[in-house]
Amino acid sequence: MFGKLSAGSVRETLNVALVVPQSGSAGIYGPSCEACADLAIADVNARAGLLGRRIRLVPVDGSRAPAAVAAEIAALLELGAIDAVTGWHISPVRQAVARVTANRVPYVYGPLYEGGERTPGLFLTGETPSRQLLPAMDWMNTEFGVDRWVVIGNDYVWPRETGTAARLHAQARGRPLVGELYLPLGTSDFSAAIRQVETTGASGVLLLLVGGDGVEFNRQFAASGMAAAVPRLSPHVEENMLMASGSESNEGLFASAGYFEALNTAASMDFAERYYSRFGPAAPALNSIGESCYEALTLLITLATRAGSLGVPELTAAAENLTYVSPRGEVSMRGNQMSQDIYVAEAVGMDFEVRQRISAA
Amino acid sequence: MPITTSVDSVSEVLFRAGRWWTEAFSTSLLDADIASVEGWRVLGVLRGGDGFTMSDIAAAMSVAPPTLTRIVDKLVDGGFVVRRVDAMDRRRVLVYLSSKGKTKVRKLARQEASLKAALTDEFGEDTAAALLRTLARVAELPVPGR
Questions:
Q1: Contact A243/B93, CB-based, under 8 Å?
Q2: Are A54 and A14 in contact (CB under 8 A)?
Q3: Top-tier CATH class for A13-128+265-341
């Protein structure tokens, strides 16, 4: 299966593994991830390429078990078939892949995540709880008086560590969480979770369910009649999930993220124009998760151009004092982590309306 | 000894014809990506290229809307179709084939061509065409007694 990919020393292209979900709970994000990644390399390839080489994306299915994804990346590296790794995939996959890429090739991780990643050569463009979810909880308290949060998430490292950050934050504010519930990825029956919202008397739900799981929860939550009374806040709900859940499930649904299609800044509108002129009006809806793949590739391109190299020490040095304008606005690097403006938005029908900027780059 | 289908038994003729079609259609078409006939039927409805609403698709396939939601959810998870808010009416969702979905539709087209060829080989071009036209009308008849 790797026959088409020749070794690094003789290759004319610079190959980047694009690890995005092709099925399962997170599969809903796949098409927009692929389209945004394609857009990110289009301009570079139309000019001189990166370090004199045209970038080629090597798709890797990130919806499989972490060990399987990491094994494929390891095999591609052994063959000299890839020069870097990027994409959107869940944290357990990142942790497994990072053990393979550490100190070998650059790895730029797009998604929002739990924070604390220190693997050498791993750069992160995503939002972390202290700047994304926690300020949004405070905003929801100020705006709507939400003071009794319950966490409902999938059972893996990102929801659990984000839930812990929310628990500590809520305690510090004197408004402790009233419950935390973590369910396996691929859950389809959320009646126990919805009962927990009812019995705890929660006044807000922190929704940390991925993709299809979040959609199914939203449908069942709205069917229970609680949507208007108990607002939901998620760092993860995006435009595809709003459309899948349907308008009737979106009342009282809030999201915080560094990017929304409805952001309407000059930088985001320029991005949307380039996206739709390339892919047409039937392209996958723009959203923070797909766009994070654009961010990740853009950071890789920017770092490598600045460093004149793909070497991990050179890229790490190039990240110092790096600031540029992306679709999210002005972004800057702090260590291996991108810092960016973050907004909170409210779902109105099947669209988001941006309400407030809650963190500054 | 196998029991042959008597043409007097209308129910058996039509039932067995339907089952033959489903089996012939499924063989070498169903795969790990799209494992149900219904999933393939949605791709077939969408192949025109323009987006369709869920109610358009449900009517075209005569399936109940909640059933269609499950089928489309699976296709969305696999990245074969995408939902878009209708720019003309932002309360409506349109479903489109993704680029991956368009690739799948080529497989569907090949399968349909081979089934049509099988009918033509057996009955001749004119009879096969007449058979399909007639069956298309059967599917649109009102249900007697309803």
A1: yes
A2: yes
A3: alpha beta
